[in-house]
TrEMBL record, chains A, B:
Family annotation (PROSITE patterns): HTH_TETR_2
Gene3D superfamilies cross-referenced by the UniProt entry: Tetracycline Repressor, domain 2 (1.10.357.10)
Matching InterPro entries: Homeodomain-like_sf, HTH-type_TetR-like_transc_reg, HTH_TetR, KstR2_TetR_C, Tet_transcr_reg_TetR-rel_C_sf
Naturally occurring in which organism (per UniProt): Mycolicibacterium chlorophenolicum
DNA-binding region: 37-56
Protein's recorded name: HTH-type transcriptional repressor KstR2
Keyword annotations: DNA-binding, Repressor, Transcription, Transcription regulation
Length: 223, 223
């Protein structure tokens, strides 16, 4: 990976495009997309603007790469093992989401901070792609809650409203989650899932002893 | 309130300053603070720019008025009846918050959308005022959860993490809450509080019969 004559080359195994994306993500998170110019990105990454445009023909394509990465990651974090209980499915999704968010807080911040304005910057096809992923995530959570209600695992509740509340609680954690904070992302996932699932689970013994499902013991020890 | 010769005057009981604030809030919510100019505000409210500057000497003072209004509202919504149970306190706070947010979605949207950047626009004193209110809200929620744990009303849990999760779940609802949506803000408060409090309450009978506290019946009927 060494690029002897190029002092601005990446030094940590990232491709130059990845490095550019990482630097732009940090700038967008701190100053906003609207408040960051391509010149700022070029300066921060130590490339001239022509080289930046070689990798990304426009600033909005950088933003779209950030968005697509975050949306694809969230969909990939969905747990679709049909043999798992509803509580296990929710717990595992929460864990993957929080660990993922804590590994790239800036990406999550850009995603949520720019959300009200993306129709200004993205093409219709790009917006449609993001909306489709968001719908998949929402419907997955709602359907898991519905499955838990149907099987008697969960109380009757409004799965639509609770799915939205759950998404706000977990994804909104980018505001305060820190990779080296007092509690790890894994521990926070256990706290959130335990409280939320204890609120949904009907059976008193399950609720008390294993609200996160069969692999509760692993979860508590961080496995 | 009639102002016969002034066609641009307010017509709905709002003072001109209030009208200006409401119009600016809508613009900031849709385009972002950075993407809205004082000219846009003047045009939208139908005043010349000098008149706008008479009410607000700078754009950042409009933003601060929006921020202060939202922060003061949230602190006022704290329920400080010391005789109430922890579950009642949380339920009433949730209800007031969601009803308040649904009555002014744009204000909540501006508050959260601009949060990462306010140190750029506000004076140190202004930032300190907002941060103090936010700390009051966070500490109130954490303390109520701690009170519930201490009295045996709630399970042991990490009140810090759950207070942050609760705030994300309730305040984050501005993203999808609609004043005339399928469910009212009051109904959503009941759904959120029931799920969250059922997750915290230890006692099986309380949890099943009255997770929102003594005035549960009122709550369900929207009172």
């Amino acid at each position: 990976m060494s690029e002897t004559a190029v002092p601005t080359g990446p030094s940590n195994g990232m491709s130059r495009r990845e490095e550019l994306l990482a630097v732009a993500t940090k700038l967008f998170a701190a100053r906003g997309y609207h408040g960051t110019r391509m010149d700022d990105v070029a300066d921060a990454v130590g490339l001239n603007k022509a080289t930046v445009y070689h990798y990304y023909a426009s600033k909005s394509l950088i933003l779209y790469d950030i968005y697509k990465g975050a949306a694809d990651f969230t969909v990939d974090a969905l747990h679709d093992d049909p043999s798992a209980s509803a509580r296990e499915t929710i717990y595992h999704f929460t864990r993957r989401l929080l660990v993922g968010i804590s590994s790239d807080i800036e990406r999550a911040a850009v995603y949520f901070q720019e959300a009200p304005y993306i129709t200004e910057w993205f093409t219709e096809e790009q917006v449609a792609y993001i909306r489709e992923k968001e719908t998949q995530v929402y419907e997955h959570v709602r359907d898991v809650i519905d499955r838990g209600i149907a099987s008697g695992e969960f109380y009757e509740c409004d799965s639509h409203v609770l799915a939205l509340g759950y998404i706000g609680m977990t994804l909104g954690s980018y505001r305060w989650l820190r990779p080296h904070g007092r509690r790890t992302a894994q521990e926070i996932a256990v706290e959130f899932s335990t409280a939320l699932l204890r609120g949904l689970i009907r059976d008193e013994a399950v609720r008390h002893d294993s609200p996160l499902g069969a692999d509760q013991a692993d979860a508590r020890s961080g496995g």
